[in-house]
Structures are given as structure tokens and as C-alpha cells.
Amino acid sequence: MQKQLSDDLIRGIVADVLGNLNSDTATPSSTAASCGCRTTASASRGNLGVFSDADSAAAAAREAFESLRKHGMEGRKKVVDIVKRICTAKDEEWGKLEFAETKIGRLEHKIAKLQGIQNLPGVEWLQPYGMTGDHGITMEEQTPFGVVGAITPVTHSIPTLACNIINIVAAGNTVVFNAHPGGANCAADAVRVFNTEIERELGIPNIVTIIDPPTLDSFNELCASEDVNLLVITGGPGVVKAAMASGKRAICAGPGNPPVVVDETARLDKAARDIIFGAAFDNNLLCIGEKQIFVLDKVYDSFLDEFRRAGAVQLTSSELAAVTAEAFDTSAGAGGCSAPVLNRDLVGADASRLAGIAGKSVPAGTELLFAETDADHVFVEEEQMMPLVPVVRVGCIEEAVRLAKESEHGYKHSSMIHTLNVEHMTLMAKALDSTLFVKNGSCLAGLGSGGEGYASFSIATTTGEGITTPTTFTRKRRCVMVDNLNLF
Ligand code: NAD
Predict the structure, then answer these.
(1) Which residues are near ligand 1 (CB < 6 Å)?
(2) Which CATH superfamily is domain 7-254+468-474 in?
(3) Which atom of ligand 1 sits closest to the CA of residue 216?
(4) Which atom, in ligand 1's list, is nearest to the CA of 288?
(5) What's the CA-to-centroid distance between 40 and ligand 1, angstroms?
């Protein structure tokens, strides 16, 4: 029955999308048409939320915001339900679409990320704060900003888009996306499908808009648009810096380079399995994924045994050198800067491809490679986003935490420790001060997969809002009634 329903839903959506794609203009909303407000030169230039320029996309999202307000919490909830429902119904189709376009990561994990959208919080997350006393009643409410400009990464194009829509619209806003060019087609396809269904159920077009094609110019126009009240940026250091320099308030989910420490009290077999699960997930594209491991000398050899037993394959130092030479340009001044330049062609590559570069053949199904390195190796220093993790031998917990902190570069993003010693946990928690800190689990436990809690694909590390929720996209407003209003 459920399968039948989702088949019907998909067929209905596809028919709607194809029908609309055949016409040059989007169907004007009945709400907008009947109320006589601008039925919009700007909105009509888009097609199911897809616009060729930032100003038109933002103007259309602004009109949609005014319409959404009239539908109250029930309208927002409908949008959240639609996005969740479609992500579940189209998990395989969209996983394949994104994988075919971006050519990075692992198909099964693209699908899993779309299934995870189901677990995001919605409008119920917005709880007012009430105060009552001799002078009356005061309520602090979480209210929308208006239109949010959102930048998405190539590493999780549709999942970040869907996650941002849920959080942003649950809070009562509408949204304009400037996706990463490498994942822009699948993002635009998803926007068309979401808008078709949202307009069918709510009669409001352009609650979600996207600029196609996205460019650096359209990013700058989006930042400068008066229709955009707030930015949410999910990406690396370049875009975070650009957004923060724009003068617009920006919620920045920036880069990470998560270290993991394994001490002498850890359950080594579990630590090995957890690290493989996290670091190999989507070929280590996750910003929270374990990127370098510091293991205490006392258990170093035993940990490597467990790591191999759990399926990680070791590269020799010459094999690692061969991969490093392909993965980074370390010549001084490469790319106009002194830092090593990552070869984007190897980001999210399969472990077998990396092993091939090293001239090594690995068993079928190998998910993760590792190599022994010093703490200053480029694979430790840089956010490699590849299923190849360096393992560093350390003498004591203090050294492990110091090197882990250095390798994280103060991003305050994510870190992990495997230990039964609470003091070691506290030492690392205080030193790294990371947004996510997972003890005795894989990095994914930090987003509710194997640990308690909810997920989000935008973890606002740089600006400190943390794992984004609907609350992140709200303004706090205070409503005060003065008088003797108490019931008591
Ligand atoms: P990226 O920085 O290359 O691109 C992100 C977005 O920014 C894209 O839309 C891109 O087109 C745009 N962009 C890049 N440089 C820009 C500039 N100078 N001006 C304007 N726009 C610019 O990142 P990516 O490779 O797509 O994603 C991986 C990075 O994102 C990693 O550093 C990862 O840690 C980070 N990330 C962080 C989170 C988080 O929640 N904190 C989530 C996912 C990814």
C-alpha cells in the first residue's frame, strides 16, 4: 500500500514537472493572482523556482515569504512534510542523479543521506519562552527573518538543499540557493520537484528558489540583494571568508579536519570499526569524518592489528608517497598560495582508485586505506576528503591532544576520542572546543546515527550556531502584556 502510494506520488510529480517544463513560464499562484499583488514580472521569469539571476530569484522568494506568512504554522509544516516525503520517495533516483553528476563518494551513502532527511526536526522545534510575574506576562517568540540566501557544497548537494529548506521554512522563511556548480543540475531538478508539489498543496510558487547557472557573480549578487535578510553558507574556507566579508549576516558551516584519538583504555576492536565506518562513509566526504588518527604508543601496534582485521588496508611509506604526489601539489606557490593544493579530482575517490595510484591491488570491497605518518604529514594537515587516513604514534595523552588540536587548525568543527578514561575525554573536550565531540563512537553518532540526537548537513562551526535547526533561522522577538494578568 505504501509502495503504491509512493509510486503514485512519484508519477504525479513527474507528470507535473514534465508538464511545467514544457511551458516557458511557471504557473502563477492562485493566491498571488487573486490577491492582486505583483503576480510578478520577476516570479514569472522563473520556472518552478529556477531563475537565471539572483535578483529575480530573491524577489520571487520575497513574494513567497509574504504568502507563506498567511498560511501560518500549518503551511510551514506542509512544506516540511513534502520535502521529507519526496526525499524518501526519491532516495534512489536522486542518489543516482547526484552521483552521476558529481562523480564523487559512494552511491549507497548518497541514498542513505537522503533517507536521513526524515530525521530532521520541524516546526515543533520552535518553542517560545514564557515569563509571568507581578508585572504581567511576557512571551519571547522565534520569528522568521524573511528570505535566506543559501550556498551548498558539492559533497552533499541535494541533502544540504533539502535539509536547509526544512530548517529555513519551518522557521517561516523562504530561500534562494546558489549551489556548487559541480552539483547544480541535480539541485535545480530537486527544486523543480519540491516547488511543483508545494505549489500543488499550498498554492504558493517559489518558496524555494535557485539560481541556475550558479556563478561567483550570482553569489555576490545574492549577498548584495536587499531581498535577502540572512545567509547560510555550507562549504570550505574560501566561501566562508567571502560571505563574512559581504556585510550581510552569515551563518557559516565551514571546513573541518576532524582528528580522532585512541588511548590505552579504548576498546580497540570497536574503535577500529567505528573509525572505518565514519572515515569511509561516502569516501570521507563528510566534514565530520575522521581525517587523522593519533594512537597512544602502548596500544599502537594492537590498534593497527584491529584496524587491519576490521578491513582497513595499509599502504607502505613509498605507496603513500605515490598517492601524496597525486593528491596534493606541495610546490611552494602552487595555486598562488604557500599551502598545499588539493587535487579535486581525487576528492571522494574510491579506496581502490587511490590504491591503484600507489600501484597496490586491494581486496574487493576495501573501504578505507591507512598509512603510518608523522604529525606534520600533508594528509594530517589538510582536509583530504579521501578514504585514506594517516595514523600517528604518540607517547602520551597530552601529546595526542596537542597534536589533534594542531591538526584541527582551530576550526572547532568535530573531534572524536576512543577511551574509557573520563579525564582524557575532558582534557580533549576542553583543548579542542569542537562543535561536535564524540566519545566511543563514529563521527556519524554526532548526527544521530548510532548516537542520540538529530541530523543536519549544515553545522555552523565558524559562527557558532552549531548543528543548524529551525531555531537557527529565527529572530527572537519579545511580546509584553503589562498589568495584573496572572491567574494566581
Ligand atoms: P567549496 O568551498 O569548494 O564550495 C562550497 C560552495 O561555495 C559552493 O557552492 C561553491 O560554488 C562556493 N564557493 C567556493 N568558493 C567561493 C568563493 N570564493 N566565493 C563564493 N562562492 C564560493 O566546498 P565543497 O568542496 O563544495 O565542500 C567541501 C567543504 O565544505 C569542506 O571544507 C567541508 O568541510 C565543508 N563542509 C562543511 C559542512 C559543515 O556543516 N560545516 C558541511 C559540508 C561541507
Answers:
(1) 151-155, 179-181, 216, 219, 234-236, 238-239, 242, 253-256, 287, 383, 457-459, 461
(2) Aldehyde Dehydrogenase; Chain A, domain 1 (3.40.605.10)
(3) 20
(4) 34
(5) 32
Question: What pLDDT is attached to residue 462?
Answer: 96
Contacts of 156 (CB under 8 A, 6+ apart): 113, 282, 285, 457
How confident is residue 330, by pLDDT bands cut at 50, 70 and 90? confident
pLDDT above 70: residue 6: no
Quote the pLDDT of residue 158: 98
Q: How far is the CA of 152 from the centre of ligand 1 (A)?
A: 7
Ligand 1 atom nearest 383 alpha carbon: 32
pLDDT reading at 460 higher than 70: yes
- The pLDDT of residue 332 is 64
Q: Output the residue whose Cα is nearest ligand 1's atom 13.
A: 239
Q: Looking at residue 485, what is its pLDDT? A: 76
- 430: Cβ contacts below 8 Å, ≥ 6 apart: none
How confident is the model at residue 335, as a pLDDT?
Answer: 58
- Residue 151 φ/ψ region, left for φ over 0, alpha for ψ in the -120 to 50 degree band, beta for the rest: beta
Q: How many other CB atoms are there within 10 angstroms of residue 427's CB atom?
A: 18
Only one residue has cell 599502537, namely: 300
Distance 179 CA to ligand 1 centre (A): 9
452 falls in which pLDDT band (50, 70, 90)?
Answer: very high
The rounded Å distance from CA 239 to ligand 1 centre is: 6
Residues 467/435, Cβ–Cβ less than 8 Å: yes
| pLDDT value of residue 483 | 85
pLDDT band at 2 (very low <50, low <70, confident <90, very high): very low
CA of 8 to the centre of ligand 1 (A): 36
Per-residue CA distances from 86 to 9, 73, 172, 221 (Å): 9, 20, 20, 30
Report the C-alpha gap between 43 and 205 in whole angstroms: 8
CATH class of 259-453: alpha beta
Residue closest by Cα to atom 36 of ligand 1:
235
Given the CA of residue 156, which atom of ligand 1 is nearest to it?
A: 43
Domain positions in the chain are 7-254+468-474, 259-453
Amino acid at 446: G
- 79 pLDDT exceeds 90? yes
Instruction: Kindly give, in sequence order, each residue whose CB lies less than 8 Å from that of residue 241, ignoring residues fewer than 6 positions away.
Output: none
Testing ligand 1's pocket by substitution, the residue of 109, 157, 180 carrying the most ligand atoms inside 8 A of its CB is 180
Shortest-distance Cα residue to atom 10 of ligand 1: 180
